[in-house]
Design brief:
single chain; 466 residues; alpha+beta; 5-stranded antiparallel β-sheet; 38% helix
């Protein structure tokens, strides 16, 4: 893949020279830094931007974007670099706006359980700042992603079954439009019927409509009791049936994650886990009062036993829970270590809970037929799972088989009333799937894009092509 640049080198030089008067050494042109900003944790390669800039304020972002808009220079917002759908590829060249220096928690409103943060604040840093107020931010995609990046990609993760996704957590934004205007959306009120919901339009827009610079977030009290558990099963089908029954009984779990046998094997090896088996396994967590958690645990134990669950491991201390979830969070990197010099192509489908078993079992059958190493990990409490396909990126036949397998998984999900992406977004990797899933609505999406970004400078080449 080669960047196709809609601007001249002379215009790029004008932009860089003018920005240098304000940003000074916060403009970086080194090949190494540019390469770091030209890709994420994905298998789509690397297309470096022409420059990387590090703003300190909304006003500086506005200056950068307005100047780039004048000369039709693309801008690519950059958070922590952990996206997996090619969001960071500079497919039309341009300038990467690295928001990592905008990392201040602006305000914490403990009484109203909300806060405002700059986009570069990471979720771990935010929770560290919140702990003294007895509050926490529950959205946990695994990686220590930036809040701005999580909002831009509509992230969710392991806690979504109880606490929802970024669309549920974000109640307002500060954003910089393609014209360089600074706008504020939403409010601190718990509900509003005031005009178009621009907050929800920008959440999940993947940097294609505006640069998100500040985020107002809904918070939650730290639960009185937190208890985590792991349970093994003889088959993926038994584990999935356990999840479906638990959801239909409305057991209010905070997290319930599925790892197939190969994924458990990879995690055992990578995270040096002891006392675990390479079998399909559910990772679970319960939040609430001591009595409510005890009741939830008893109910789920009964369901697990009904479907042959065994080898229960309980964790109540923070250290024990962290050990369990560390293995889950390292699943992607553990999968990558199954094969030397490999990359991982990840699927991200989400289906109605009643269709979960059919979707996952078909995905496992298709994976077996592909003869490619595939692990499976899922936020199965809300019907979302990832088939992680291990490939040698230099083996074109493997890459082709992986893409075919990914298409099969998505096709099954769409036929079951699901979606091609539950939390990773479209980026460059799922544009063809979006055309199928939203065939009747994609032209409206393009119209919104062109109305807000007529010169197509905001992360062009992502979500769809213009």
């Amino acid at each position: 893949m080669r960047a196709i640049k809609p601007y001249s080198q002379a215009d790029l030089n004008r932009v860089i020279n003018e920005l240098a008067t304000t940003l000074g050494d916060r403009i970086n042109l080194s090949p190494a830094v540019r390469a770091q900003h030209g890709g994420g944790d994905d298998s789509y390669g690397n297309l470096p931007p022409d420059a990387v800039v590090y703003p300190f304020s909304n006003e500086e972002i506005a200056q950068i974007v307005a100047l780039c808009n004048k000369y039709k220079i693309p801008v690519i917002p950059f958070g922590a670099g952990s996206s997996v759908e090619g969001h960071l590829l500079a497919v039309k060249g341009g300038i990467s706006i690295d928001l990592s220096e905008m990392n201040q928690v602006i305000e914490i409103n403990a009484a109203d359980m909300d806060c405002r943060v700059q986009a570069g604040v990471t979720r771990e840093a935010l929770n560290k700042a919140l702990r003294y107020d007895g509050l926490f931010f529950p959205i946990d995609p695994g990686a220590n992603a930036s809040i701005g990046g999580m909002a831009a990609t509509q992230a969710s993760g392991t806690n979504a079954v109880k606490y929802g996704t970024m669309k549920d957590a974000v109640i307002g934004l500060t954003a910089i439009t393609a014209a360089g205007d600074i706008i504020k959306t939403g409010s601190r009120a718990r509900k509003s019927a005031a005009g178009y919901d621009l907050t929800q339009l920008l959440v999940g827009s993947e940097g294609t409509l505006a640069v998100i610079s500040e985020v107002q977030l809904r918070l939650h009290p730290i639960p009185d009791t937190i208890k985590a558990a792991v349970c093994s099963f003889e088959s993926v089908a038994a584990a999935v049936d356990t999840v479906i029954n638990a959801m239909q009984m409305a057991i209010p779990m905070a997290r319930i994650e599925l790892l197939n046998g190969l994924q458990m094997q990879a995690c055992i090896q990578y995270s040096k886990l002891e006392g675990f088996e390479a079998k399909p396994t559910l990772f679970m967590e319960f939040h609430g009062s001591e009595s409510s958690v005890a009741e939830q645990v008893a109910q789920l134990e009964d369901i697990c036993r009904e479907f042959g669950g065994s080898a229960f491991k309980w964790a109540e201390s923070t250290e024990q829970r962290n050990e369990l979830w560390k293995a889950r969070h390292n699943a992607y990197h553990a999968t990558q270590q199954l094969q030397a010099n490999s990359k991982v192509l990840t699927t991200d489908v989400c289906v109605p809970i009643s269709k979960l078993a059919k979707s996952i079992l078909q995905a496992e059958q298709d994976a077996h037929a592909s003869q490619l190493p595939c692990t499976l990990v899922g936020h199965v409490g809300d019907g979302n799972y990832h088939l992680l396909i291990v490939i040698d990126p230099t083996d074109h036949a493997q890459v082709a088989r992986a893409k075919q397998l990914s298409a099969q998984v998505v096709d099954t999900a769409l036929k079951l009333g699901g979606t091609c992406t539950g939390e990773h977004g479209i980026g460059v990797g799922k544009k063809d799937y979006l055309k199928v899933e939203h065939a009747t609505a994609i032209n409206m999406m393009k119209s919104i894009k062109m109305a807000l970004d007529p010169k197509n400078i905001m992360n062009p080449g992502k979500i769809f092509d213009l």
